[in-house]
């Protein structure tokens, strides 16, 4: 038996690995001329950087963790983020213990004491204000969100803030609380390549529904990890996406340039949203001269993030594409990954979705 996988990112590679392990012949078609998708890692003078933004592996899924650590060596890394607020760098998520040291603490405390017991879920803005109060929201979230998404925060769904915006009182500084965390010592590209080792990979090959007959026989299962508006050639209209552009800067005489891998910049007068120094992930490199700092500029013509509008228009269009997946007669179609599901998911979830799609293919045999 054979199967076609559209896309060579994490989800597609995980599906291909699972199917190949069960003896299937797997053909993977990737539109780009490299594998890895948005998690691809690049290297310059032995220094890692990520052209599509920071990616931190963290998970509660022990099966996924066993898989990735079987295929790649992971260095221990616990991710921390800083944010520039009131002219100084503080931890993100915000920590009460650090806020107490600010000159405006009395005003902040008064707003925090007045917060509702239950978050206001009408939209992204009301949710964040009900967690942080108007002052902290204005300093840290409002303008950052306008830059990142290119729209007012009250037009976004509240679910985007859940588990991403919080105010901590326990002093826990790591961004994630998952039990399994790390960063692959050779980068994410090497992990994807290991997953694809037993598959036939075709690069520079865009697959859409009208050309599916060129790559898949009738009845052959197809796992789609590309965006469904691309796959169906925008037959139900284009989905709304938000892309970023990363500009790397090599600093040859600097060991580490900033206090954490990621520094958020909510200042509306700055065109970039954050700076990223991937070298932080590998402690063995910290003392070496040379680092790469990337500025992340939002608004690029790329499909990095689905846009969760508060009216649900984008999700409704995605649902129309998913109905097309379910009614396609020539081949059984399965979806996995951030692009195909139009969901903002983490890397472990993308791998889990790829594995689950492969399982469904195997069960259908």
Labels describing this entry:
Rossmann fold; 365 residues; alpha/beta; five-stranded parallel beta sheet; single chain; six-stranded mixed beta sheet
Q: Care to describe what's here?
A:
This protein is α/β, with parallel strands linked by helices and 365 residues long. Among the domains are: 2-41 and 187-240 and 307-363, 3-Layer(aba) Sandwich (Rossmann fold), CATH 3.40.50.720; 81-168. 30% of the residues lie in helices and 23% in strands. It is built from ten helices and 18 strands. The protein has helices at residues 10-21, 62-71, 96-99, 105-113, 124-149, 188-195, 228-231, 313-327, 338-341, 347-363; strands spanning 2-6, 25-30, 42-44, 47-49, 57-59, 74-75, 81-85, 88-92, 94-95, 167-168, 180-184, 200-203, 222-224, 241-251, 262-264, 274-276, 291-306, 333-335. It has a six-stranded mixed β-sheet with strand order 8-7-15-16-17-14. The protein has a five-stranded parallel β-sheet with strand order 12-2-1-13-18, with helices on one face. Strand 1 (2-6), helix 1 and strand 2 (25-30) form a beta-alpha-beta unit. The longest helix has 26 residues, at 124-149. The protein is globular and about 70 Å long. The protein starts with a strand and ends with a helix. 42% of the residues are buried. The mean pLDDT is 97.
């Amino acid at each position: 038996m054979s199967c076609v996988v559209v896309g060579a990112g994490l989800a597609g590679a995980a599906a291909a690995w699972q199917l190949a392990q069960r003896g299937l012949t797997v053909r993977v078609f990737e539109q780009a001329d490299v594998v890895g998708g948005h998690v691809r890692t690049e290297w310059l003078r032995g220094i890692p950087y990520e052209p599509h933004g920071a990616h931190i592996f963290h998970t509660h899924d022990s099966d996924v963790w066993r898989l990735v650590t079987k295929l790649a060596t992971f260095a221990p890394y616990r991710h921390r983020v800083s944010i520039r607020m009131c002219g100084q760098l503080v931890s993100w998520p915000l920590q009460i213990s650090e806020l107490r040291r600010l000159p405006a603490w009395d005003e902040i405390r008064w707003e925090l004491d007045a917060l509702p017991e239950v978050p206001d879920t009408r939209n992204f803005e009301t949710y964040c204000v009900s967690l942080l109060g108007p002052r902290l929201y204005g300093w840290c979230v409002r303008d950052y969100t306008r830059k990142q998404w290119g729209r007012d925060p009250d037009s976004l769904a509240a679910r985007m803030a859940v588990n991403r915006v919080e105010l901590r009182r326990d002093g826990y500084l790591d961004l994630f609380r998952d039990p399994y965390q790390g960063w692959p010592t050779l980068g994410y590209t090497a992990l994807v390549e290991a997953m694809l080792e037993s598959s036939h990979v075709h690069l520079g090959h865009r697959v859409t529904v009208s050309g599916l007959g060129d790559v898949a026989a009738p009845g052959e299962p197809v796992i789609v990890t590309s965006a469904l508006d691309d796959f169906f050639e925008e037959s139900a209209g284009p989905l709304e996406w938000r892309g970023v552009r990363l500009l790397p800067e090599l600093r040859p005489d600097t060991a580490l340039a900033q206090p954490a891998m990621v520094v958020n910049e909510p200042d509306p007068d700055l065109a970039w949203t954050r700076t990223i120094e991937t070298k932080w992930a590998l402690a063995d490199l910290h003392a070496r001269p040379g680092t790469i700092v990337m500025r992340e500029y939002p608004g690029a013509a790329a499909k990095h993030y689905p846009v969760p509008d508060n009216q649900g228009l984008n999700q409704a269009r995605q649902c129309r594409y998913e109905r097309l997946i379910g009614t396609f007669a020539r081949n059984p179609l399965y979806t996995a990954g951030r692009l195909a599901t139009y969901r903002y998911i983490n890397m472990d979830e993308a791998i889990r979705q790829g594995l689950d799609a492969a399982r469904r293919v195997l069960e259908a045999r």
